[in-house]
Structure formats: structure tokens, C-alpha cells
Design a protein that fits this description.
This protein has 285 residues and is mainly β. The protein has one domain: Porin. Helix content is 11%, strand content 66%. The protein is rod-shaped and about 105 Å long.
């Protein structure tokens, strides 16, 4: 009986081990695949800030404004009109933007954006010429771009779901301040009835004028924008902005008797800005 019990135990043990070994050889069920990452949606409102650099340029030429300035400053052999000048500058800029995108196809979107940037652009130039030789005059001009903004449409193409290349263009506006001053190193009096001027010499201002206002124009550009996370994008872009021209009337500061001050115009051409900047935007999905 004891031998029979041992045989039964041995048989049962052999069967159990065989089943365990067979179970170990069975294929295990693979864990579930992780869900795919969500595809970035460009549709919706966004807002953010930008920083960059702007370069400005504007050409200046001169024209008489009355018979005295036409005769003396632009025709007489002892005088000459101020030579044309070019006003240029570069400055850091920074500002804000808001906009809306509509992704109307997997690889295309259209949108609209408005931005506003503060600027430290301040360019100047000085030209010289004869004034009763060997005396000379110096005419100095200055232009400041205090701020500017744009309202633009955008057309974007998505080579990747989170990468957009775009072109943009539209309306531009900006605050422009301009001034001009004419000085001489000798004294003189000019008179063609009823216009006069009196220059006291010694570098004192003889004619001066200024203007300021908001000029309008157009802009065009393009750039690349990349989606960092589900609600944040970073952008690099270039814009060319062209704002309207303006004339500054340089008027005689001192006159002789009860006469009309002579004057001439400093004609500032269009103010052109080239802008390179980076922007960070938050998308409101």
C-alpha cells in the first residue's frame, strides 16, 4: 500500500510539472498600444507678444515755397538748395498681436491678424552748401517712428501638422515725427516783396519746421510658425511696411519789418520699414 501511494504521488507531480511547463510556453497577451498624440489644431483665436529689430529709411528733397526762396535758395549763384538727404536708422521693437486662424483643409489655413509695436527709430541727416561763399549753411533733418501697427490677412501651408509657412499682407499705420532746421555761419537778409528772411549767423537757426501725425500705408511679408504644445506656438517673420510721405515747411524764424516769412519745403518721401521679429502666441482652443 505504501508503494502504491508513492507511485500515485509521483505521477501526480509529473503531470503538474508538465502542465506548468506547457503554460509557461503559451504566448502572452501584448499590452494595449498607447493612444496616438493629439493632432494640433490651428483653428481659433490667439494672442501673444513679439520682439525684434526694425530698419527705417526715408529720402528727403527740397522745393521752394515762395518767390524769395525760389529766387535766392534755388537760383542765385551765391546760394544753393540743400542737397537731397537719406534718413536711416535701426532699433529694437516690441509689441502685441491678436488674430484668428481657420484651418479649412488638412494642409491649408487662412487667418487675420492685428499687431501694435513700439519703436525707438530715430534717424537724422545733415547736408551743407554755399551761403554767401565762403560762408556755408547746414540743413539738418530728423525723423522718428514712435510706433506702428498692421492689420493683415494670412495664408498658411502646413508641410507638417505642427509647422506652418505663411504669407501675409494688408494695411499699415504709424506715428511719424519729422523736423528740419536750416542754420548758417554768417548773417544775411533776403527780401522779395512781401517775403523776407533774416539769418543771424553763428550757427543759429534761420529756418525751421516740424510735423507729426499718423501716416498710413501697406505691408507685405511672410514667415514660419511652429506649434510647441497644444496651446503655444512660436513664430519668426519678416515684414516690409511702407507709410505715406509728408512735407515739413521750413519757415524763416526772423523777418524784416511787417512782412511774410519766406519758407521752403523739406519733402520726406515714404517711410519704409524692414522688420524681423519673433513672436510667441497662445491658442484659445
Amino acid at each position: 500500500m505504501r508503494r502504491l501511494s508513492l507511485a500515485i504521488v509521483a505521477g501526480v507531480s509529473t503531470i503538474a510539472f508538465t502542465q506548468l511547463a506547457s503554460a509557461a510556453d503559451l504566448p502572452r497577451k501584448a499590452p494595449p498600444a498607447p493612444p496616438p498624440p493629439p493632432v494640433f489644431s490651428w483653428t481659433g483665436f490667439y494672442a501673444g507678444g513679439n520682439v525684434g529689430v526694425a530698419w527705417s529709411r526715408s529720402n528727403v528733397n527740397y522745393a521752394p515755397n515762395d518767390p524769395l526762396s525760389a529766387e535766392i535758395f534755388f537760383n542765385a549763384p551765391f546760394f544753393a538748395p540743400p542737397p537731397s538727404a537719406s534718413v536711416r536708422d535701426s532699433s529694437l521693437i516690441g509689441g502685441l498681436q491678436v488674430g484668428y486662424n481657420w484651418q479649412f483643409a488638412p494642409a491649408w489655413l487662412i487667418g487675420a491678424e492685428a499687431d501694435f509695436d513700439w519703436s525707438g527709430l530715430k534717424g537724422s541727416a545733415t547736408t551743407v552748401g554755399p551761403f554767401f561763399p565762403p560762408s556755408t549753411f547746414a540743413n539738418s533733418v530728423e525723423q522718428r517712428v514712435k510706433w506702428f501697427g498692421t492689420v493683415r490677412g494670412r495664408l498658411g501651408y502646413l508641410p507638417l501638422p505642427n509647422l506652418m509657412a505663411f504669407v501675409t499682407g494688408g494695411f499699415a499705420f504709424g506715428r511719424i515725427e519729422q523736423s528740419a532746421t536750416y542754420t548758417t555761419d554768417s548773417s544775411a537778409i533776403g527780401f522779395v516783396a512781401p517775403f523776407t528772411f533774416v539769418c543771424t549767423g553763428g550757427g543759429a537757426p534761420c529756418f525751421a519746421g516740424s510735423s507729426k501725425g499718423t501716416e498710413t500705408g501697406w505691408t507685405i511679408g511672410g514667415g514660419i510658425e511652429y506649434a510647441l504644445w497644444q496651446n503655444w506656438t512660436i513664430r519668426g517673420e519678416y515684414l516690409h511696411v511702407s507709410l505715406g510721405s509728408k512735407s515739413v515747411t521750413e519757415t524763416a524764424i526772423t523777418v524784416s519789418g511787417a512782412t511774410i516769412p519766406s519758407s521752403f519745403n523739406a519733402n520726406f518721401g515714404r517711410t519704409n520699414l524692414d522688420i524681423a521679429r519673433f513672436a510667441l502666441n497662445y491658442q484659445f482652443h
